[in-house]
Design brief:
The protein has 298 residues and is α/β, with parallel strands linked by helices. The protein is built from eleven helices and twelve strands. It folds into two domains: 121 residues, Periplasmic binding protein-like II (D-Maltodextrin-Binding Protein, domain 2), CATH 3.40.190; 122 residues, 3-Layer(aba) Sandwich (D-Maltodextrin-Binding Protein, domain 2), CATH 3.40.190. The longest helix has 34 residues.
Length: 298
């Protein structure tokens, strides 16, 4: 065989091999893209109204990246979310407290805890009231009905209007434990709601009102004032350092281990891609909690 013919055969073989390799690479790439875009399914979640804004924001981002996924998130209180995930009514139960605090041991043992953030709870008043700080004793006396007028704590001669939460509320549980030394609130409050939006509107509409909400509801709010406790402001930085103690982990519980699209969503909300929005929305990053802060809650 002539040298030219041999060279042509070699070049043909090389070219064919290259095309085959390219074709295989393209197929592999397409398969990966197809696999990445194949995420689909539905997710239902309910529970904590404090955690709801973060879950909704994460759901919007996740569905935008995965058009074949549908996520529905509702409030109703931590107790409601935990009961519903335990009985299989929803895929995820959102809670401000550990499941053991709202469910019996048998029910709680069926759930898997996913800590996605921390929540800071702040006593909140109408900004025009002029109250910026209360002692633990004053705060307790206000919410137990012993103090009924703001002039008793250095404020205006104005009746105090309590806005509290139902017993199913995780926010209430955190506030009772860490702001009021486990003292029960007064049962004669003017309003009881687990809708944080309703609570904030009530405070905006009533100068004498006081309630408590997650710090996330105070971001960019100009009508409400977060109240310091014993001179310590309810900020993320003070919470990280263990100076402000009214906080808790934000839990997203599943029945058993998370799987499929639910597992993908939980990884997304607690992952690096979404983390930049967590603090911007007023929530804390769990990994930033100091040893001092964590030990104070054990």
């Amino acid at each position: 065989m002539k040298i030219n013919q041999i060279m042509k055969l070699c070049l043909t073989g090389i070219l064919a091999g290259s095309l085959t390799a390219c074709s295989a690479g393209t197929s592999s790439s397409n398969a990966s893209a197809s696999s990445a875009s194949a995420l689909s399914g539905t997710i239902s979640a309910s529970g904590s109204s404090a955690l709801l804004p973060l879950v909704q924001a994460a759901a919007d981002d996740f569905m935008s990246a995965n058009p074949d996924v549908s996520i529905t998130a509702n409030g109703g209180g931590s107790g409601t979310g935990l009961k519903q995930v335990a009985d299989g009514s929803v895929d995820i139960g959102n809670s401000d407290v550990y499941a053991e605090e709202k469910l019996d041991a048998a029910q709680a043992s069926t759930l898997t805890d996913h800590k996605v953030a921390t929540v800071v709870v702040a006593a909140t008043v109408n900004k025009s009231l002029g109250i910026t700080n209360l002692t633990t004793a004053q705060l307790t006396d206000i919410f137990t009905g012993k103090i009924t007028n703001w002039k008793e704590v250095g404020g205006k001669d104005l009746s105090i209007m309590l806005v509290t939460r139902p017993s199913s509320s995780g926010t209430r549980a955190l506030f009772k434990k860490w702001a009021m030394n486990n003292t029960e609130e007064s049962g004669s409050s003017a309003l009881e709601t687990d809708d944080s939006g309703t609570l904030m509107q009530t405070i905006a509409d009533n100068e004498g009102a006081i309630g408590y909400v997650a710090l996330s509801y105070l971001v960019n709010n100009t009508s409400a004032q977060a109240v310091s406790i014993d001179g310590v402001e309810p900020t993320l930085e003070n919470t990280y350092q263990g100076k402000y103690n009214v906080w808790g982990f934000e839990h997203m519980y599943t029945k058993g281990e998370a799987s499929g699209v639910t597992d993908s969503f939980l990884q997304f909300i607690s992952g690096d891609t979404f983390s930049s929005k967590v603090e911007a929305m007023g929530y804390g990053v769990a990994s930033k909690m100091s040893d001092t802060a964590v030990k104070s809650h054990q």
